[in-house]
Amino acid sequence: MRETTITTSRPEPRSLLRFAAPQMFYPLAGRLAPWFATVALVLTLAGLWLAFFVAPTDAQQGEVYRVIFIHVPAAWMSMFIYLVMAFWSAVGLVMNTRLSFLMSRALAPTGAMFCFVALWTGALWGKPTWGAYWVWDARLTSQLLLLFLYLGFMALTTAIEDPRRSDRAGAIIALVGAVNVPIIYFSVKWWNTLHQGASVSLTEAPSMAATMLAGMLVMALAAWAYSIAVALWRVRALILERERHTEWVGAELTAQEGKL
Amino acid sequence: MSALPSPFAAVLRRDLLLAWRGRADVLVTLAFFVVVVCLFPFGVGAEPNLLRAIAPGVLWVAALLATLLSLHRLFAQDHADGTLEQLLLTPEPTVLWVTAKVAAHWIATGLPLVLVAPGLALLFDVEQGALPILTLSLALGTPILALLGAVGAALTLGLRGGGMLLALLVLPLFVPVLIFGAGAVDAYLSGSGADAHLLLLGGGLLGALALAPFACAAALRIALE
């Protein structure tokens, strides 16, 4: 089981197979997480500075457009994290590696959080721009359904007490959801265009100013770094919980208590 | 090894026989469907134009909820008395008898809804020409709901609060079926023709038939290992 290649998509260059073992990954995650957190903090500050002080006021929407600096990265991240979750679930089911399931579980709350942030900021932007907090636009609706998929995944994995069954059941529902996400998106899109005609689209953005785009990209990178940092910390907690019967966890906890 | 159709036919016959012996359960699902549909006019008012406009959506949402409520029965009984484990131990392909069970479940709970729906549509004064479209859309769509729901039912087998969890898991997945199902009737009424919707529903049914039993079989094996 050790020789499986699962760490291909991790960002660190030393993606060696031995880190598939929770015991090996735990200290690595602990060392990497603060770096990603620092990068996230720096990029967030830079991005917000660009967003609020450098980027010009939008000609049509005024100041309200500045919500995109949070909204767009959050929406991207929420969709991307679901794909990563499905990826780790597939890896876990095929390769039978425990750490992969833990990764997908560690990612879910962050994805759901970004999903919620995207919906919330979208509503705040929609009120002054469209005159309503909620419009049954295709993107909004599929984002809402994505949030439900996240909640379903988290509810299922917490409802099952047996860790092995919980991991695998979660992986199956993540994969079923991933197959359905494009179907949901296109069906909702079609439904919306059939019902409402051309409603206000989020895709207007006519030739965005370079600083706006830069601010958005910096914020997106910050969201990436944040997600990685938080997922690594969460996976550490999950590893400790899952491996609490082993000796190395006992030693680790004693060492941590000694430090306090 | 026996001939291929026999385990399928055997499970199908057994489940249908069980459903027939427990007719009351099946009738409760049907009664639920009728009652939910009849509640809407009380809620939104009995204005005929409004009722005519919401009829396809109401019938479809009610059919979806009725399917959802009956889903937990799909495996629960066999799980409780150990039949499910015995079935998993047989050398027959799991996918085959899972499909048979879902088919029997749909015949027992989904088919009655399909047959009753046109009668209920008349309560909403739906144009008579749209009734065949409604029936056809339900006949194509409710099996998809049963197949997708079977995956959720297998995943939540034997869990505390499994019913609510099942709803949370499968309802987002039901959305496309709802859109195309109710949309078929709307499209017919608006004069653009329901062919596209019905073809998509048919394609969805074939896709679900091809994929869902595998996911369901994997989920059952996980639930019972």
Task: Give a verbal description of the structure.
The complex is a heterodimer of chains A (260) and B (225). The two termini of chain A are 36 Å apart. With 260 residues, chain A is mostly helical. Chain A has one domain. In chain A, 75% of the residues lie in helices and 0% in strands. Chain B has one domain. In chain B, helix 3 packs antiparallel against helix 8, helix 6 (94-123) packs across helix 7 and helix 7 (131-155) runs parallel beside helix 9. At the A-B interface, helix 4 and helix 5 of A face helix 7, helix 8 and helix 9 of B.
Offer a concise description of the structure.
The complex is a heterodimer of chains A (260) and B (225). Chain A is 75% helix and 0% strand.
Q: How many beta strands in the DSSP annotation of chain A? A: 0
Structural class of chain B comes to: mainly alpha
Mean pLDDT of chain A: 83
Using the CA coordinates, give the radius of gyration of chain B. 18 Å
- Spatial separation of the terminal alpha carbons of chain B: 24 Å
Q: Spans of chain B with pLDDT under 50 lasting ≥5 residues?
A: none
What do the pLDDT scores of chain B average to? 89
Helix content of chain B: over 70%
Anisotropy-based shape of chain A: globular
- Outline the biggest β-sheet of chain A: none
- Quaternary state of the chains: heterodimer
Largest interface: A-B, 28 and 30 residues
Structural class of chain A: mainly alpha
DSSP helical segment count of chain B = 9
Count of domain modules of chain A: 1
Q: Give the helices and strands of chain B as they follow along the chain.
A: HHHHHHHHH
Structural topology:
The complex is a heterodimer of chains A (260) and B (225).
Chain A: H1 22-54, H2 68-95, H3 98-130, H4 138-159, H5 163-196, H6 210-242, H7 247-259
Helix pairs in contact in A: 1-6, 2-3, 2-5, 2-6, 3-4, 3-5, 3-6, 4-5
Chain B: H1 5-21, H2 23-44, H3 48-71, H4 73-80, H5 83-89, H6 94-123, H7 131-155, H8 162-189, H9 195-224
Helix pairs in contact in B: 1-6, 2-3, 2-6, 3-6, 3-7, 3-8, 6-7, 6-9, 7-8, 7-9, 8-9
